[in-house]
């Protein structure tokens, strides 16, 4: 289901090959993806990946319902065929720790983590959320919604003593994204996105949060 949906979206602007090992699904896939090449074989086999054109691929998406298969495809694509970009689907959240550079995964996608992040965002007034880690995890893009009791409320950005290696990227207020300026005064409910060192997250949260 996931692979079929992604193939449909990506085929609008890209050349896509869809690999599906279940013979019973090929007829319906062929009907829905008339402009997409479909290979009815097991994508964990190197010869199948070669037949599908992996040597010329810019990106491989390993999105089966089996974590082991996704990791095998990712490993082969990255280290045997040197595909520049690998995106892999995490089915069981307990297996997420395996989806790393050592297995060839550039980006791992977990539906459970996405849902959890949304839930945290909805209940995280005054608490900091890590949106994305950069530079091997040393730098992070973080988000915090300023609560009423924050000591940053009614102070301009120039008055705040931000931790070292910290940059406020944008402030979202009333669903409008605002470019931060020195004279911008923070208000309760402002959603602040900042780039900071992981070592300074606690200090930034203490400044902007409860």
Q: Write out the CATH superfamily name of the largest domain.
A: NAD(P)-binding Rossmann-like Domain
Largest sheet composition:
5 strands, antiparallel
Q: Distance N terminus to C terminus?
A: 43 Å
Total beta-strand segments: 10
**CATH topology label of the largest domain:** Rossmann fold
Uncertain runs are none
Whole-number mean pLDDT: 90
Order of helices and strands: HEHEHEHEEHEEEEEH
Strand order of the largest sheet: 6-7-10-8-9
Number of helices: 6
- CATH class type of the largest domain: Alpha Beta
Q: How many discrete domains? A: 2
Give a verbal description of the structure.
The chain has 210 residues and is an alpha/beta fold. A 5-stranded antiparallel β-sheet has the order 6-7-10-8-9. The chain is built from 6 helices and 10 strands; from the N terminus they run αβαβαβαββαβββββα. The model has no long low-confidence stretch (mean pLDDT 90). Helices cover 27% and strands 24% of the residues. It is elongated, with a radius of gyration of 22 Å. The two termini are 43 Å apart. It folds into 2 domains: 2-109, Rossmann fold (3-Layer(aba) Sandwich); 124-208, Alpha-Beta Plaits (2-Layer Sandwich), CATH 3.30.70. The protein has helices at residues 2-10, 26-32, 46-52, 67-80, 111-122, 201-208; strands spanning 17-19, 37-39, 59-62, 85-90, 107-110, 129-134, 139-145, 166-173, 176-178, 191-197.
């Amino acid at each position: 289901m996931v692979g079929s949906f992604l193939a449909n979206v990506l085929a609008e602007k890209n050349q896509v090959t869809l690999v599906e090992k279940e013979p019973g699904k090929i007829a319906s896939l062929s009907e829905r993806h008339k402009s997409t090449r479909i290979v009815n074989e097991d994508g964990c086999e190197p010869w199948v990946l070669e037949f599908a054109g992996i040597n010329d691929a810019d990106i491989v998406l390993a999105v089966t319902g089996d974590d082991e298969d996704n990791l095998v495809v990712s490993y082969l694509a990255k280290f045997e065929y040197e595909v520049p970009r690998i995106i892999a689907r995490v089915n069981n959240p307990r297996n997420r720790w395996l989806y790393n550079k050592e297995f060839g995964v550039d980006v791992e996608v977990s539906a459970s983590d996405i849902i959890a992040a949304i839930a945290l965002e909805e209940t995280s007034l005054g608490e900091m959320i890590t949106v994305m880690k950069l530079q091997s995890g040393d730098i992070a893009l973080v988000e915090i919604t300023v609560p009423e009791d924050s000591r940053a409320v009614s102070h301009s950005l120039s008055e705040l003593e931000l931790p070292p290696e910290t940059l406020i990227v944008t402030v979202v207020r009333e669903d409008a994204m605002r470019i931060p300026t020195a004279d911008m005064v923070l208000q309760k409910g402002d959603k602040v996105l900042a780039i900071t060192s992981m070592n300074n997250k606690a200090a930034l949260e203490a400044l902007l949060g409860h």
